[in-house]
Amino acid sequence: MKALVKAKREPGLWLQDVPVPVPGKSEVVIKILRTAICGTDVHIYNWDSWAQKTIPVPMHVGHEFVGRVAVIGENVTDYKVGDLVSGEGHLVCGHCRNCLAGRRHLCPNTSGVGVNRAGAFAEYLAIPQVNVWYCDPNIPLDILTCFDPLGNAVHTALSFDLLGEDVLITGAGPIGCMAAAVARHAGARHVVVTDINPYRLDLARIAGATRVVNVANENLPQVQQELGMKEGFDVAMEMSGSPAALNALLENMCHGGKIAMLGIVPDNTAIDWSKVIFNGLTIKGIYGREMFETWYKMTTMIQSGLDISRLITHRFHYTDYEEAFSVMRTGHSGKVVLNWEE
Ligand code: NAD
Ligand code: ZN
């Protein structure tokens, strides 16, 4: 089968022939229909220091996918050939305290599809049946293939009560824009999204932000004043990975405000801890998606009108992956989807 392989320890991905995976006893093999490109895949393409110490070579990568079950292992009873499925890319151990308690997203022994083991940028993918998510066939394939990053947004956004609250999102990447859509859907009042990239701020507005802020030429205290907010944001989601954004966020919270941190800030990023302590802030780190409460919630929100379709800005056939990755690198994109059908 064809796959996008990290074949050499240097920047790039290579379209190569690799063996079709054989399912383990409790695995399913999925015929991939669509994949989406994640920022992680761009790190792997670029071969940055994180990728160099994390990604085995050679290996095909990718973890955002939707497809149809093609082969099932002998112990698989819950899925049948032809089922439309996506899946959780985080594989967990199943026997640690958190796994046993049903908090699988907190497993300390997590490994990742397309990061630690063969990925989804391929015609076929094998994953354990416990990682499979059965998809509503009424939801378009291009949306279903974004369930992994949408799940990041949903997990973050639903960490705190948003109904009637004023919400700040720093970073209007695909996930920040999805979080803006979720916050509106969940009943927030003001949904303010910051970035330094005007293209991305336009996407955030389209997604549902009530006010977008280019922090290169505007600041949040002014925006609060304009909106008649007197005490700061009730809930914030950090989705940029920028230390400057994190510090601006901390400056603009109400006392007792709640912060969910998805963005991956550089090691040893400094913050003003007095803001956290004297203002009684709560900070929650977010990793991945809750298995499978997040998947349930994103499905039902899409079924009840959550619309992220306009955040998918580019579509390519998988053979045009070089163009797809170069679009991702420009920053002038939302989600970029690859089609793996003939
Ligand atoms: P992205 O890189 O596409 O978007 C980040 C955005 O932040 C960009 O649009 C950038 O212009 C903006 N930004 C940069 N500096 C800023 C500043 N000072 N103020 C405001 N915005 C600023 O990323 P994404 O794919 O949308 O993901 C969002 C973040 O979440 C990334 O940091 C990513 O690494 C992280 N992530 C974490 C998890 C997890 O499980 N914790 C999962 C996926 C992604
Ligand atoms: Zn575990």
TrEMBL record:
Q: What is its EC number?
A: 1.1.1.103
Q: Does the keyword Acetylation apply?
A: no
Top class in the EC scheme: oxidoreductase
Q: Where is the active site?
A: T40, H43
- GO BP: L-threonine catabolic process to glycine
- The superkingdom of the source organism is Bacteria
Q: What does this protein do?
A: Catalyzes the NAD(+)-dependent oxidation of L-threonine to 2-amino-3-ketobutyrate.
Name the record gives this protein = L-threonine 3-dehydrogenase
Organism listed in the record: Desulfopila aestuarii DSM 18488
